[in-house]
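Key result, reporting period 2: structure in, sequence out.
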């Protein structure tokens, strides 16, 4: 399964392990994230906080939803890797908010 970063984001199916793996390993997506991250960190801290706080709430909500689904799944369910990655993303947002002095 090939992932296209130009595809409709609402078509992303987190229950399909092949789609998840393709998304997490897509070089275009990874390069885009690096570029956007550099641009974002160049913004003034106040502006970063305005965007990070709601993003933290959204990321935590998505993590909680998948964790609820996986609570009934087997221990070897490949979606657990996605959950781990999502949890890492939530923690990175929290860390950046703390670095900027916004507390979280």
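The corresponding designed sequence is given below.
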């Amino acid at each position: 399964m090939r992932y296209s970063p130009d595809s409709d984001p609402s078509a992303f199916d987190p229950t399909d392990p092949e789609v998840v793996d393709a998304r997490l390993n897509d070089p275009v997506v990874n390069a885009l994230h690096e570029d956007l991250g550099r641009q974002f960190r160049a913004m003034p801290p106040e502006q970063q906080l305005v965007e990070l706080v709601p993003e933290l709430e959204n990321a935590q909500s998505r993590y909680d939803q998948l964790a609820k689904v996986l609570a009934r799944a087997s221990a070897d369910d490949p979606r657990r890797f996605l959950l781990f990655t999502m949890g890492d993303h939530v923690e990175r947002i929290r860390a950046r908010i703390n670095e900027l002095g916004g507390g979280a």
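The mean pLDDT is 88. The chain is about 65% helix and 0% strand. This case is discussed further under Risks and Mitigation.
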